[in-house]
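Protocol step 4 of 6: structure prediction from sequence.
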Amino acid sequence: MGSFGAVFGPWLGGQLLAAGHGDWGFTAVALAGVSSAVLIGVAALRSARQPRTGGDREAVAAAH
């Protein structure tokens, strides 16, 4: 994802400037940040609901 952002960000900024909408650059970056925060929150909630397994030392020792 980092490489995608490294390519897409400057491209989008150039397109906005070429179209005369240079002041929309902050809005585009802010939307990307908010959507990232929402997706990270959803991922955190999903992982919190799943039971944790594999941390029981006796079960791991018995398996070996």
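Step 5 (inspection) to follow. The chain has a mean pLDDT of 83.
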